Amino acid sequence: MGPAPFQASASEIEGGIRLLEVNGELDLSTSNQLEGPLDDATASPASAVLIDLSDCTFIDSTGIALIVRAWQRVDTSAGNGGEGGLALCCQNEQVRRVLEVTGLEHSLRVFPTRDEAVAALRG
């Protein structure tokens, strides 16, 4: 049995939060499918971006790098007077472990559920 097919979808949810849902393995071979939507979501100042990794089954350094770049773009906007923010939600233990080992779980706002992440982005 092979890995689940990768899918990345972008939408806007209530309150103007940009939601990116990641399904399957986020790695070197699939990261290009998330890069465009992630760039679009973080392009405008005062972005509130939620990356939902709940259905992400694996993440490698390429996926981590995409998230870090998005975080830096949103953080830079917020530092210049923007109201943006970036949050992740993830329940998959393997993916959370990677976030923990890389230190991102302590640098980024990571929540177990989408509802908690949305609440944090709303302030």
Strand-helix topology:
Blueprint: E1 7-13, E2 17-26, H1 31-42, E3 48-59, H2 61-79, E4 85-89, H3 93-101, H4 104-107, E5 109-111, H5 114-122
Parallel strand pairs: 2-3, 3-4, 4-5
Antiparallel strand pairs: 1-2
Tell me the CATH architecture. 2-Layer Sandwich
Widest beta sheet: strand line-up: 1-2-3-4-5
CATH class: Alpha Beta
Measured as a percent range, the helix fraction is 40-55%
Strand content: 25-35%
The fold-level CATH name is Transcription Regulator spoIIAA
Q: Main sheet, how many strands, which sense, barrel?
A: 5 strands, mixed
What's the domain count? 1
Total number of strands: 5
Which of globular, elongated, flat, extended, rod-shaped describes the shape?
globular
- Gyration radius, to the nearest Å? 13 Å
Mean pLDDT equals: 88
The separation of the N and C termini measures: 42 Å
Count of separate DSSP helical elements: 5
Uncertain segments are none
By CATH's scheme, which homologous superfamily applies?
STAS domain
Order of helices and strands: EEHEHEHHEH
**SS-based class:** alpha/beta
Explained architecture:
- With 123 residues, this protein is an alpha/beta fold.
- The chain has a single domain, classed as 2-Layer Sandwich (Transcription Regulator spoIIAA).
- 43% of the residues lie in helices and 30% in strands.
- It has five helices and five strands, in the order ββαβαβααβα.
- It has helices at 31-42, 61-79, 93-101, 104-107, 114-122; strands at residues 7-13, 17-26, 48-59, 85-89, 109-111.
- It has a five-stranded mixed β-sheet, with helices on both faces.
- Strand 1 and strand 2 form a beta hairpin.
- The longest helix is centred in the middle third of the chain and has 19 residues, at 61-79.
- It starts with 6 loop residues before the first strand and ends with a helix.
- The model has no long low-confidence stretch (mean pLDDT 88).
